[in-house]
Amino acid sequence: MINIHFIINPIAGEGKNKITKGFLLKHLEADSYHVTIKHSEYKKHAIELTQNSIAEKASIIVACGGDGTINEVASCLINSSIILGVIPTGSGNGLASNLNIPKDINKALELIKNQDVKSIDAGQINNKIFFSNTGIGFDAQVVKHYEASAQRKLSSYIKACLKALQSFKGKNKVVITINDQQIVTNPFLIFTSNSNELGYKVSLTPKASLQDGLLDVLVVPKMNLLKTLFFGVLILFKKHHVLSQVKTYMTKRLTLSIQYQDFFETQIDGEFYKINSNTIHISIIEKALLVIA
Ligand SMILES: Nc1ncnc2c1ncn2[C@@H]1O[C@H](COP(=O)(O)OP(=O)(O)OP(=O)(O)O)[C@@H](O)[C@H]1O
Protein backbone atom coordinates (compact mmCIF):
# COMPACT_ATOMS: atom_id res chain seq x y z
CA MET A 1 0.00 0.00 0.00
CA ILE A 2 1.42 3.39 -1.04
CA ASN A 3 0.82 6.16 1.49
CA ILE A 4 0.42 9.18 -0.79
CA HIS A 5 -0.33 12.71 0.46
CA PHE A 6 -1.52 15.64 -1.67
CA ILE A 7 -0.85 19.19 -0.49
CA ILE A 8 -3.00 21.54 -2.52
CA ASN A 9 -2.53 25.31 -2.69
CA PRO A 10 -6.06 26.50 -3.52
CA ILE A 11 -4.95 29.97 -4.66
CA ALA A 12 -2.05 28.90 -6.92
CA GLY A 13 -2.43 29.95 -10.54
CA GLU A 14 -5.64 31.84 -10.63
CA GLY A 15 -7.18 29.46 -8.11
CA LYS A 16 -8.74 27.47 -10.94
CA ASN A 17 -7.28 24.04 -10.21
CA LYS A 18 -9.67 21.13 -10.54
CA ILE A 19 -8.01 18.70 -8.14
CA THR A 20 -10.81 17.32 -5.99
CA LYS A 21 -11.01 14.42 -3.59
CA GLY A 22 -13.34 12.67 -6.07
CA PHE A 23 -10.84 13.07 -8.91
CA LEU A 24 -7.95 11.67 -6.87
CA LEU A 25 -9.89 8.75 -5.39
CA LYS A 26 -11.22 7.83 -8.84
CA HIS A 27 -7.71 7.59 -10.31
CA LEU A 28 -5.83 6.07 -7.37
CA GLU A 29 -7.08 2.53 -6.73
CA ALA A 30 -8.09 1.95 -3.09
CA ASP A 31 -6.29 -1.41 -2.95
CA SER A 32 -2.95 0.20 -3.92
CA TYR A 33 -3.06 3.72 -2.48
CA HIS A 34 -3.88 5.23 0.88
CA VAL A 35 -4.71 8.84 -0.11
CA THR A 36 -4.57 11.88 2.19
CA ILE A 37 -5.54 15.34 0.92
CA LYS A 38 -4.61 18.61 2.62
CA HIS A 39 -5.19 22.25 1.61
CA SER A 40 -2.88 25.09 2.54
CA GLU A 41 -4.73 27.98 4.14
CA TYR A 42 -2.02 30.64 4.26
CA LYS A 43 1.57 31.39 3.20
CA LYS A 44 4.06 28.80 4.57
CA HIS A 45 1.22 26.53 5.77
CA ALA A 46 2.38 23.84 3.30
CA ILE A 47 5.59 23.51 5.36
CA GLU A 48 3.61 22.59 8.47
CA LEU A 49 1.35 20.24 6.45
CA THR A 50 4.39 18.50 4.93
CA GLN A 51 6.04 18.08 8.32
CA ASN A 52 2.83 16.44 9.56
CA SER A 53 2.76 14.19 6.47
CA ILE A 54 6.34 13.10 7.20
CA ALA A 55 5.29 12.20 10.76
CA GLU A 56 2.30 10.33 9.27
CA LYS A 57 4.78 8.19 7.27
CA ALA A 58 3.84 9.38 3.76
CA SER A 59 6.03 7.75 1.11
CA ILE A 60 5.06 10.20 -1.67
CA ILE A 61 4.07 13.83 -1.04
CA VAL A 62 2.56 15.63 -4.01
CA ALA A 63 2.80 19.43 -4.17
CA CYS A 64 -0.18 20.80 -6.11
CA GLY A 65 0.66 24.40 -6.93
CA GLY A 66 3.46 26.48 -8.41
CA ASP A 67 7.10 27.02 -7.54
CA GLY A 68 6.22 28.58 -4.17
CA THR A 69 4.24 25.54 -3.06
CA ILE A 70 6.88 23.14 -4.38
CA ASN A 71 9.49 25.08 -2.41
CA GLU A 72 7.52 24.82 0.84
CA VAL A 73 6.88 21.07 0.43
CA ALA A 74 10.23 20.03 -1.07
CA SER A 75 12.34 22.02 1.43
CA CYS A 76 11.09 19.56 4.07
CA LEU A 77 12.20 16.58 1.95
CA ILE A 78 15.88 17.47 1.44
CA ASN A 79 18.08 14.37 1.76
CA SER A 80 15.09 12.21 2.68
CA SER A 81 13.81 9.01 1.05
CA ILE A 82 10.31 10.48 0.73
CA ILE A 83 9.52 11.17 -2.92
CA LEU A 84 8.11 14.46 -4.21
CA GLY A 85 5.33 14.43 -6.79
CA VAL A 86 4.16 17.58 -8.55
CA ILE A 87 0.85 18.55 -10.09
CA PRO A 88 1.61 21.97 -11.62
CA THR A 89 -1.33 24.27 -10.92
CA GLY A 90 0.69 27.46 -10.41
CA SER A 91 1.00 30.52 -12.60
CA GLY A 92 4.53 30.21 -14.02
CA ASN A 93 5.30 26.56 -13.12
CA GLY A 94 8.99 27.00 -13.94
CA LEU A 95 10.34 23.94 -12.11
CA ALA A 96 7.59 21.60 -13.36
CA SER A 97 8.26 22.77 -16.90
CA ASN A 98 12.00 22.10 -16.53
CA LEU A 99 11.09 18.62 -15.26
CA ASN A 100 8.71 18.09 -18.23
CA ILE A 101 5.79 17.49 -15.88
CA PRO A 102 2.57 18.03 -17.86
CA LYS A 103 0.16 20.78 -16.80
CA ASP A 104 -2.77 18.52 -17.62
CA ILE A 105 -3.75 17.11 -14.22
CA ASN A 106 -4.73 13.70 -15.64
CA LYS A 107 -1.33 13.32 -17.30
CA ALA A 108 0.52 14.64 -14.23
CA LEU A 109 -1.26 12.07 -12.05
CA GLU A 110 -0.48 9.28 -14.54
CA LEU A 111 3.19 10.27 -14.28
CA ILE A 112 3.01 10.07 -10.49
CA LYS A 113 1.50 6.58 -10.71
CA ASN A 114 4.38 5.47 -12.98
CA GLN A 115 6.83 6.53 -10.24
CA ASP A 116 9.83 7.24 -12.46
CA VAL A 117 12.05 8.89 -9.85
CA LYS A 118 14.91 11.34 -10.51
CA SER A 119 17.40 12.76 -8.06
CA ILE A 120 17.84 16.52 -8.47
CA ASP A 121 20.06 19.20 -6.94
CA ALA A 122 18.83 22.01 -4.70
CA GLY A 123 20.34 25.39 -3.91
CA GLN A 124 20.87 26.94 -0.52
CA ILE A 125 20.87 30.69 0.18
CA ASN A 126 21.96 31.30 3.78
CA ASN A 127 19.54 29.02 5.67
CA LYS A 128 16.88 28.81 2.94
CA ILE A 129 16.50 26.23 0.17
CA PHE A 130 15.64 26.88 -3.46
CA PHE A 131 14.97 24.49 -6.29
CA SER A 132 14.46 26.88 -9.21
CA ASN A 133 16.31 30.13 -8.64
CA THR A 134 17.10 33.03 -6.39
CA GLY A 135 18.07 36.60 -7.20
CA ILE A 136 18.83 40.04 -5.91
CA GLY A 137 18.12 43.23 -7.80
CA PHE A 138 15.46 43.67 -10.43
CA ASP A 139 13.85 40.19 -10.13
CA ALA A 140 13.43 40.59 -6.36
CA GLN A 141 11.76 43.98 -6.92
CA VAL A 142 9.42 42.47 -9.55
CA VAL A 143 8.38 39.75 -7.09
CA LYS A 144 7.88 42.36 -4.35
CA HIS A 145 5.49 44.32 -6.61
CA TYR A 146 3.82 41.12 -7.86
CA GLU A 147 3.07 39.97 -4.31
CA ALA A 148 1.50 43.35 -3.58
CA SER A 149 -0.91 42.88 -6.51
CA ALA A 150 -4.08 40.94 -5.84
CA GLN A 151 -3.88 38.63 -8.88
CA ARG A 152 -1.53 35.83 -9.88
CA LYS A 153 -1.33 35.88 -13.65
CA LEU A 154 1.01 36.87 -16.48
CA SER A 155 -0.43 40.40 -16.77
CA SER A 156 0.30 40.97 -13.04
CA TYR A 157 3.96 40.01 -13.72
CA ILE A 158 4.14 42.46 -16.63
CA LYS A 159 2.68 45.28 -14.47
CA ALA A 160 5.12 44.36 -11.68
CA CYS A 161 8.03 44.54 -14.18
CA LEU A 162 7.03 48.07 -15.24
CA LYS A 163 6.68 49.23 -11.62
CA ALA A 164 10.04 47.70 -10.70
CA LEU A 165 11.66 49.39 -13.70
CA GLN A 166 10.27 52.79 -12.64
CA SER A 167 11.40 52.48 -9.03
CA PHE A 168 14.67 50.52 -9.48
CA LYS A 169 17.66 52.32 -7.97
CA GLY A 170 20.55 49.81 -7.95
CA LYS A 171 22.76 52.24 -6.02
CA ASN A 172 24.48 49.77 -3.68
CA LYS A 173 27.76 48.14 -4.62
CA VAL A 174 27.84 44.37 -4.23
CA VAL A 175 31.02 42.29 -4.03
CA ILE A 176 30.57 38.86 -5.63
CA THR A 177 33.07 36.13 -4.79
CA ILE A 178 32.76 33.34 -7.35
CA ASN A 179 35.22 30.72 -8.65
CA ASP A 180 38.14 32.42 -6.81
CA GLN A 181 37.33 35.70 -8.52
CA GLN A 182 36.01 38.94 -7.01
CA ILE A 183 33.61 41.11 -8.98
CA VAL A 184 32.45 44.49 -7.74
CA THR A 185 29.23 45.68 -9.35
CA ASN A 186 26.25 47.95 -9.01
CA PRO A 187 23.86 45.19 -9.96
CA PHE A 188 20.73 45.35 -12.01
CA LEU A 189 20.49 41.63 -11.40
CA ILE A 190 22.45 38.84 -9.74
CA PHE A 191 20.50 35.73 -10.63
CA THR A 192 21.44 32.23 -9.48
CA SER A 193 19.60 29.29 -10.97
CA ASN A 194 19.39 25.55 -10.49
CA SER A 195 16.71 25.13 -13.17
CA ASN A 196 16.53 26.29 -16.77
CA GLU A 197 13.19 28.08 -16.58
CA LEU A 198 11.75 31.04 -14.69
CA GLY A 199 8.19 30.20 -15.66
CA TYR A 200 5.96 31.01 -18.66
CA LYS A 201 8.77 29.42 -20.76
CA VAL A 202 11.05 32.41 -20.00
CA SER A 203 14.66 31.55 -19.19
CA LEU A 204 17.63 33.58 -17.97
CA THR A 205 19.83 30.48 -17.72
CA PRO A 206 18.81 28.20 -20.61
CA LYS A 207 21.80 25.88 -20.12
CA ALA A 208 21.14 25.19 -16.42
CA SER A 209 20.57 21.58 -15.40
CA LEU A 210 18.87 20.26 -12.27
CA GLN A 211 21.30 17.36 -12.20
CA ASP A 212 24.75 18.79 -13.00
CA GLY A 213 25.84 19.67 -9.45
CA LEU A 214 26.31 23.31 -10.50
CA LEU A 215 24.53 26.64 -10.19
CA ASP A 216 24.22 28.91 -13.23
CA VAL A 217 24.78 32.56 -12.37
CA LEU A 218 23.90 35.64 -14.41
CA VAL A 219 25.39 38.99 -13.40
CA VAL A 220 24.00 42.12 -15.05
CA PRO A 221 25.21 45.57 -13.96
CA LYS A 222 22.93 48.58 -13.83
CA MET A 223 22.59 49.93 -17.38
CA ASN A 224 20.81 52.87 -18.97
CA LEU A 225 17.07 52.52 -19.63
CA LEU A 226 17.44 51.83 -23.35
CA LYS A 227 19.95 49.06 -22.82
CA THR A 228 17.85 47.63 -19.98
CA LEU A 229 14.82 47.48 -22.29
CA PHE A 230 16.96 45.87 -25.00
CA PHE A 231 18.12 43.29 -22.42
CA GLY A 232 14.43 42.57 -21.70
CA VAL A 233 13.69 42.01 -25.40
CA LEU A 234 16.76 39.76 -25.81
CA ILE A 235 15.55 37.60 -22.89
CA LEU A 236 12.41 36.75 -24.85
CA PHE A 237 14.65 35.24 -27.54
CA LYS A 238 17.10 33.71 -25.02
CA LYS A 239 19.84 35.89 -26.55
CA HIS A 240 20.56 38.20 -23.58
CA HIS A 241 24.10 36.80 -23.16
CA VAL A 242 25.15 38.57 -26.40
CA LEU A 243 25.24 41.88 -24.45
CA SER A 244 28.84 42.43 -23.37
CA GLN A 245 27.72 43.62 -19.90
CA VAL A 246 25.97 40.30 -19.18
CA LYS A 247 28.31 37.79 -17.54
CA THR A 248 27.49 34.14 -16.93
CA TYR A 249 29.19 31.70 -14.57
CA MET A 250 28.80 28.11 -13.43
CA THR A 251 29.80 27.37 -9.88
CA LYS A 252 29.17 25.31 -6.76
CA ARG A 253 29.10 28.34 -4.50
CA LEU A 254 29.22 32.12 -4.40
CA THR A 255 29.13 34.85 -1.81
CA LEU A 256 27.57 38.28 -2.10
CA SER A 257 28.36 41.09 0.28
CA ILE A 258 26.95 44.57 0.31
CA GLN A 259 28.37 47.78 1.74
CA TYR A 260 26.47 50.42 3.72
CA GLN A 261 23.41 48.18 4.17
CA ASP A 262 22.73 45.31 6.56
CA PHE A 263 20.08 43.50 4.52
CA PHE A 264 19.40 42.07 1.06
CA GLU A 265 16.06 42.03 -0.71
CA THR A 266 15.83 38.72 -2.58
CA GLN A 267 13.44 36.45 -4.36
CA ILE A 268 13.65 32.75 -3.61
CA ASP A 269 11.69 30.51 -6.01
CA GLY A 270 9.51 33.49 -6.88
CA GLU A 271 8.73 34.55 -3.29
CA PHE A 272 10.04 37.78 -1.80
CA TYR A 273 12.39 37.54 1.20
CA LYS A 274 14.36 40.12 3.13
CA ILE A 275 17.61 38.61 4.42
CA ASN A 276 18.86 40.53 7.43
CA SER A 277 22.58 40.24 6.81
CA ASN A 278 25.14 42.08 4.69
CA THR A 279 26.49 38.75 3.39
CA ILE A 280 24.76 36.00 1.45
CA HIS A 281 26.24 32.55 0.89
CA ILE A 282 24.73 30.56 -1.98
CA SER A 283 25.68 26.93 -2.66
CA ILE A 284 24.50 23.77 -4.37
CA ILE A 285 23.32 20.67 -2.51
CA GLU A 286 23.89 17.83 -4.96
CA LYS A 287 21.25 15.12 -5.43
CA ALA A 288 19.19 16.63 -2.62
CA LEU A 289 15.68 15.60 -3.65
CA LEU A 290 13.88 12.59 -5.11
CA VAL A 291 11.19 13.72 -7.53
CA ILE A 292 8.84 11.92 -9.89
CA ALA A 293 9.36 13.32 -13.40
N1 LIG B 1 -4.80 29.48 1.16
C1 LIG B 1 -3.82 30.32 0.85
N2 LIG B 1 -4.06 31.66 0.85
C2 LIG B 1 -3.11 32.56 0.51
N3 LIG B 1 -1.84 32.20 0.14
C3 LIG B 1 -1.54 30.88 0.10
C4 LIG B 1 -2.51 29.88 0.46
N4 LIG B 1 -1.92 28.66 0.33
C5 LIG B 1 -0.64 28.90 -0.07
N5 LIG B 1 -0.42 30.21 -0.22
C6 LIG B 1 0.79 30.90 -0.73
O1 LIG B 1 0.59 31.15 -2.14
C7 LIG B 1 1.83 31.55 -2.70
C8 LIG B 1 1.90 31.24 -4.17
O2 LIG B 1 1.94 29.89 -4.39
P1 LIG B 1 2.57 29.23 -5.73
O3 LIG B 1 3.92 29.79 -5.99
O4 LIG B 1 2.45 27.78 -5.56
O5 LIG B 1 1.58 29.69 -6.89
P2 LIG B 1 1.83 30.70 -8.08
O6 LIG B 1 2.58 31.91 -7.60
O7 LIG B 1 0.52 30.90 -8.71
O8 LIG B 1 2.74 29.85 -9.09
P3 LIG B 1 4.25 30.11 -9.63
O9 LIG B 1 5.13 30.34 -8.44
O10 LIG B 1 4.62 28.84 -10.36
O11 LIG B 1 4.16 31.29 -10.54
C9 LIG B 1 2.88 30.87 -1.83
O12 LIG B 1 3.61 31.89 -1.17
C10 LIG B 1 2.07 30.10 -0.79
O13 LIG B 1 2.69 30.09 0.48
From TrEMBL:
It comes from the Bacteria. Residues 1-129 form the DAGKc domain. Its EC number is 2.7.1.-. The keyword Lipid biosynthesis applies. It is an enzyme of class 2 (transferase). Keywords: ATP-binding, Kinase, Lipid biosynthesis, Lipid metabolism, Magnesium, Metal-binding, Nucleotide-binding, Phospholipid biosynthesis, Phospholipid metabolism, Transferase. Pfam families: DAGK_cat, YegS_C. This is Diacylglycerol/lipid kinase family protein. It comes from Lacinutrix iliipiscaria.
